[in-house]
Specification:
The protein is mostly beta strands and 270 residues long. It is built from one helix and twelve strands. The strands form two sheets. It has a five-stranded mixed barrel. A five-stranded mixed barrel has the order 8-9-10-12-11.
C-alpha cells in the first residue's frame, strides 16, 4: 500500500511541474520575443572512457542577452506551491534557420519558442527562431502575395537539401533536392493585400531576407549566379516539405546588368 501511495505522489509531482520565465509569461511551445546578439560558440568536451581520452569540439550558435534569463521551476500539489528553483542563463543556444545566418554577430530581435533538449540530466534548452530582425536595419519595403506582381533584387545561389524518403540526410540515402535561393539586397515584409483573393496557406511574414525562387522551363544559367539579378514575379508562402524558405517566388521575368529583360514561358508552381 505504501508503494502505491508513493508512486501516486510521484505522478502528482510530475503532472504539476511547471516552468516559466518571470516577466515573459513563458511556457514551452509558446511564442516569445527576445532581443540580444547572435554569436558563434564552441565548447570542448573531454571524455575518458576505459582510460582512453577523447576530445570533441561542439560548435553552436547562441543568443547573448543583455541580462541573464531566469527560468523558474515550481512544483504544486492541489494548487499549493511546495518547492521552487531558479536557473540563470547568460546565453541561450538557438536553432537558426539558414535565412538568418547573415545576422550572426548582430543585435537582433528574435521571435520563437523554447524547447528542452532530450537529455533530461541537464537544464539545457534551445530557442527555435522563427523570425530574426536586425535591430539596426528597419524594414523599409512591404510587398504583397499573389496575384500582385512584385520586383526584388539580390544574389542567387543553390543549396542541396535531403529529399525523399526521409528528408533527413543525403549521406544516409535520401535523394538530393536542389533549391535556388535569392539573398535579398534588403529585407522585406510580405503581406496579404486587402481585397485580393487569399490562398489558405499565405500568411504575413516579417523581415524576409531570402526567397526560394522557381523559374519556368527557361531555367537560369550558371552565369546568372555570379552577379546581382532583378526578378519579377508573384510570391506565395511555403506549404510543402520541398519549400526551403518561408516565402517563394514564381519568376515571370528577370534581368541583370548584362542582359535586357527576358520572359520565360509560364510554368506551374510545385
Amino acid at each position: 500500500m505504501l508503494k502505491i501511495s508513493y508512486l501516486y505522489l510521484l505522478f502528482l509531482l510530475s503532472a504539476c511541474f511547471v516552468i516559466a520565465i518571470p516577466g515573459y509569461g513563458w511556457e514551452f511551445e509558446q511564442n516569445i520575443t527576445i532581443e540580444g546578439v547572435l554569436r558563434r560558440a564552441e565548447r570542448t568536451i573531454i571524455k575518458d572512457p576505459n582510460g582512453k581520452k577523447e576530445t570533441k569540439v561542439e560548435k553552436s550558435i547562441v543568443l547573448v542577452t543583455d541580462k541573464p534569463l531566469v527560468f523558474s521551476r515550481f512544483i504544486t500539489i492541489e494548487k499549493q506551491q511546495i518547492a521552487s528553483t531558479e536557473t540563470s542563463y547568460p546565453h541561450i543556444g538557438v536553432y537558426l534557420p539558414g535565412e538568418f545566418m547573415s545576422l550572426i554577430g548582430k543585435r537582433v530581435q528574435c521571435n520563437g519558442y523554447f524547447q528542452r533538449l532530450d537529455d533530461h540530466s541537464t537544464d539545457a534548452i534551445t530557442l527555435h527562431i522563427n523570425t530574426a530582425l536586425d535591430c539596426k536595419q528597419p524594414i523599409q519595403k512591404t510587398v504583397f502575395y499573389e496575384p500582385v506582381e512584385v520586383e526584388v533584387s539580390g544574389l542567387l545561389y543553390e543549396e542541396v537539401y535531403p529529399g525523399p524518403p526521409e528528408y533527413t540526410s543525403v549521406v544516409m540515402g535520401d535523394s538530393p533536392e536542389r533549391a535556388v535561393l535569392l539573398t535579398l539586397n534588403e529585407p522585406i515584409n510580405v503581406e496579404i493585400k486587402e481585397g485580393e483573393e487569399v490562398n489558405s496557406f499565405n500568411e504575413p511574414e516579417k523581415g524576409v531576407r531570402e526567397l526560394q525562387v522557381v523559374f519556368s522551363d527557361s531555367m537560369h544559367s550558371r552565369d546568372q549566379m555570379k552577379g546581382e539579378i532583378v526578378l519579377s514575379g508573384t510570391l506565395y508562402h511555403a506549404h510543402t516539405v520541398h519549400h526551403r524558405r518561408r516565402v517563394l517566388m514564381m519568376v515571370k521575368s528577370w534581368r541583370d546588368q548584362r542582359q535586357p529583360p527576358s520572359k520565360p514561358a509560364s510554368s506551374t508552381p510545385h
